[in-house]
Design goal:
InterPro entries: AAA+_ATPase, ABC_transporter-like_ATP-bd, P-loop_NTPase
Number of helices: 9
Structural class: alpha/beta
Strand order of the largest sheet: 6-7-8-3-9-10
Number of strands: 12
CATH topology: Rossmann fold
CATH architecture: 3-Layer(aba) Sandwich
Order of helices and strands: EEEHEEHEHHHEHEHEEHHEE
Keywords: ATP-binding, Nucleotide-binding, Translocase, Transport
CATH superfamily: P-loop containing nucleotide triphosphate hydrolases
Distance between the termini: 45 Å
Pfam families: ABC_tran (PF00005)
Function: Part of the ABC transporter complex HmuTUV involved in hemin import. Responsible for energy coupling to the transport system.
Oligomer: single chain
Helix content: 25-40%
Largest sheet: 6 strands, mixed
Protein name: ABC transporter ATP-binding protein
């Protein structure tokens, strides 16, 4: 039941990134802009084909799985979803049920609506929503199907502080239910607070991977982000006060 990424590479960004992850883990993919986070997620979900390396999930070579099978296997939230214009939110979510083997699709739709608290948005059209509201709707669609593996590229983009915490709590709960959740994140405080494992990429190469405390070291942050950091820790979690390297 392990995800294994071995020396995975792609000519646009990624070079020889390797790590393993288990069901029940929330894995954060970190790195500066252009480091290769989105490329890695696109390779994992099959949007891109790797130039090198091996990618296996549950002992299956993911490059040999059809698009239809991937749809059953995983849920994916891209960094920039395709614009859907004037489609109503409820219709947009219903379209996400296509090609999913569900005995009660209506029940599944109600589950994600409740989970993301988007009842008030259902009869509105996507083009009339704020950026944060659209993001919550797209997250809801990625959750449809109750997949064992969820990939999210910057799920907290455009969200205010309340909904950032809500979305991270939802994703944490997915992992606690035994699912593998893999996210690209920019917010290091959220990554340290919610993730079990971090994968830090620098210029397309793996810089560090492991528990948050082992990855978010002064040396790694200086190399990957060109910052120094002060961490504030409380019983509720941690947050980061960054400053530029002098």
């Amino acid at each position: 039941m392990t995800l294994k990424v071995e020396r995975l590479g792609h000519s646009t960004r990624l070079q020889e990134v390797s790590f393993a992850a288990q069901p029940g883990e929330l894995v954060g993919i970190l790195g500066a802009n252009g480091a290769g986070k989105s490329t890695l997620l696109q390779l994992l979900c099959g949007v891109l084909e790797p130039d090198a390396g091996q990618l296996t999930y549950q002992q299956r070579d993911l490059t040999q799985i059809s698009a239809y099978e991937r749809r059953q296997l995983l849920g994916y939230l891209p960094q920039t979803p395709v614009a859907e214009g004037g489609i109503r939110v409820d219709h947009f979510l219903q379209a996400g049920l296509v090609n999913l083997h569900l005995s009660c699709p209506g029940k599944e739709l109600n589950r994600v609506v409740e989970t993301l608290q988007i009842h008030a948005l259902l009869e509105r059209t996507l083009d009339k929503l704020s950026g944060g509201e659209q993001r919550r709707v797209h997250i809801a669609r990625a959750l449809l199907g109750d997949h064992n593996w969820l990939l999210c590229d910057e799920p907290t983009t455009s969200l205010d502080l309340y909904y950032q915490l809500q979305v991270m709590a939802v994703l944490r709960a997915q992992a606690d239910r035994g699912k593998l959740v893999t996210l690209a994140l920019h917010d290091l405080g959220l990554a340290a607070r919610y993730c079990d494992r971090l994968v830090l990429i620098d210029k397309g190469r793996l810089l560090a991977e492991g528990a948050p405390a082992a990855v978010l070291t002064d040396a790694n942050l200086a190399q990957a982000y060109k910052i120094k950091a002060r961490w504030l820790c409380t019983d509720e979690g941690v947050t980061l006060l960054p400053s530029l390297l002098s």
